[in-house]
Each structure stands twice: as C-alpha cells, then as structure tokens.
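Box 3.1. Reading complex inputs
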Amino acid sequence: MSEKQYVSYGSAKTCSPDVAAREITGCRFSIAPMSDNFVDILLSALKQVDTSKLWSGTDALSTVYRGKNRHVVDALKACFIHAVQAGQGVHTTMEATFSRGCPGDTAADYTMTVSDEAVNEAAVSDIHFPVLCKIALYPMGVENYMEYIAAVVNRAIDLGIYEGTAHYCTVLRCDVQSLFAYFEEVNNYCAEHVSHYVLEASLSVNSPSERSTQ
Amino acid sequence: MSEKQYVSYGSAKTCSPDVAAREITGCRFSIAPMSDNFVDILLSALKQVDTSKLWSGTDALSTVYRGKNRHVVDALKACFIHAVQAGQGVHTTMEATFSRGCPGDTAADYTMTVSDEAVNEAAVSDIHFPVLCKIALYPMGVENYMEYIAAVVNRAIDLGIYEGTAHYCTVLRCDVQSLFAYFEEVNNYCAEHVSHYVLEASLSVNSPSERSTQ
C-alpha cells in the first residue's frame, strides 16, 4: 500500500531556520483585464516590467515577485500601470498577496543583494489615475493582531486615502501612486512589528459600477 | 480643528460581545470573466442565484454573502457555475474570501434562522468542469496556526484534489463540485477549531496558459 505524502509545517515558534528567508518580501498577484484582448494586455504588461532586481516566476494562476520590499512594490506598481495603460479604458482588477516571514518559507527564489534604487520608477512615476482598492491585513501568530490592523487602517486615514470599512475589508480610494507608496509603507511597518504577516489587496480601475455612481 | 475619526478594533481576546455574530459565515467574492461581455455574464450569474437563505450585498468591488456555511457555499458555487456557463468558454477567475469569527464583526447583515436545505443545489449539482485553484488559510490569534493549515492541506491530499505547494499558497485541481464540497468542509473544520479564521481561494477556468500545457 503506497503511503500518502502528507505535509507538516511545524510550529510558528520555531520559524524558518534560515534567517535569510525571513528577510524576503514576496507578492503573488493576478491581473484580470475584462476584455477579449486580455492575453495581449497581460503579456505586454509583464514584458515591460524590469525584474532585474527580483526573483520572478509566472505559473498558471499568478505571478510571484520575491526580493526587497522596495523592488517588489516597484515592479508590482509598474506591472499594474502597464496593464491599465495597455487596456485603454478596460475594466481591470488586480489581486495581490504580500507576505513576509512565513515559517514554511525557504531561502530560495529571491534576489536581495541589490541596491535600493527602484528600477521601474522612472517609467511610471508620472502616470496618475484613480484606483478603488480593498485591503485586509493578517498578522499571524499573535493574540493582539487587531491592534496592528487598526494601526495600518489609521495610517490610511492619516494619509486621506481611507474610504470606509466593509465586511471583511477596508476600502481605500486614491491615486495609483499614493496607493503603492502606502503598500510599501505597510510592508515596512509589518516587517518591523510582526514576524509573519499577509496583506491582501484587490485593486479595481475603470469599473462600470463605479462610473454609474459618479 | 476637526479631529480625524480613527478606528479601534479592540483585542481579539475580548472578541465580539455579540455571540450571534460569531456564528455567521461570510464570503466576499469577485468574479472576473475576461471578455468584452463581462457585465452581462456577471449580471446573469448573480441574478440566477437563489439568495433567499442569505444576506447578500453587492458593492463596487465585490459581492458579500452572510449566513450559514452551507448556504454561503451553496450560493457561491451556484454563482460561479452560472458565470462559467454564461461565459461559454471564456477564461474566468474568482477570488473568494471566507471568514468567520472576526472580533470586529457585528450581528447585522445576516440570515441564520433558516433550514439546512441548500436551495441552489438542484440547479447546479449535475454540472461538472475542472477548476484550478489556489487556497491560503489564515487562522488568527493563535501561535500554532501552521498546524491547522497543515491539517487542511492534508485533507486535500486525502481527497485527491491536491496539486502541490507554491509560494504563499496551496494549489488544488479538481471538479468544481469536489472543490466547493471541500470549502464547506474546511469552513466547518475551522469553525470548530479556531475562533477566527480567513480562507482565501482563487479559482480559474478556461485559462489559455492551462490549455497550452495540456
């Protein structure tokens, strides 16, 4: 009788034995252009991103960037902006899962020994459009996780990008540049305060349900 | 000087004072048909779902169902299947966030006093197609959260729907009916073992990158 290959993720207390793995910021993301032309839009966007300062991999479900927080956010912002530009008004959404410190993570598939200069910034920093976004933060392994969530939401209030609270998420509305600057800041805050966190973000542009209410 | 309205979510230890709120299973989801015809596909799908045993609300970003686990999963499955059928081969993705027990939740916007009979089952139970899916489970507020994640992944291995582990997620591949049965089971398992959890699932059908590798 063949035995099944079960997984065992150990305990969060032991964390990854590899310190290097805990320094890696990662983002798994999927962009959905609601257009017959979605393949061309996605390939065009992915191709325009400079990923030289990251590890990057694309599978059947999504793309993953791993490296320094700054470069992950820089590349993600570039990919989203390029997709929206290629879509020329098409309703486009993006789901992004930022993560750092997972006890199951390993020190593989990453690039860290690079300078801090954001290589995509020059190509996209002058492009502005409004984004509607929902976020949810999951600080793992700690009883007081709601305090970190409140701190991150209150920072959005301070920045003037907070639209409101809804079931299971916080809604933000702002310019695309402000939104990604906020993501970078939240990633830095979380890396400093919790050993393992996940930040989920869903972005939406050119939604017909938005247009009909404005 | 006007003061900013900050949020305060209190402590997970105190939880929601309202016991009723802790019984509510919720799901926030967005379906993305990658077609010029996405509005008609989405409206057609949402309209065909019997939501009589749920609270349901749609905003600019997503739709939320709240009620008993069985009815939330039943309605979500029906909505996804109706969207895939209306799409007639269109590449379609769905992002779904299941949640229960959030300390910030309130005993509002829900339907619980209904029988267990799943009202959408008859319309969709005979429809079968393969789905590629990634999941991530976040058991909140507990140090040993990796153990619950491992249990849920091992259950997928037992069911023969586990495809593999990737960065930040577990990949499943199976028939649509098996997948939603698994979601219902995971929700029941989590409700029994952790006071607050979030289960993220991303489903994909008719992907051209899938077709090209088969």
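In summary: The first strand of chain A starts at residue 25 and ends at 33.
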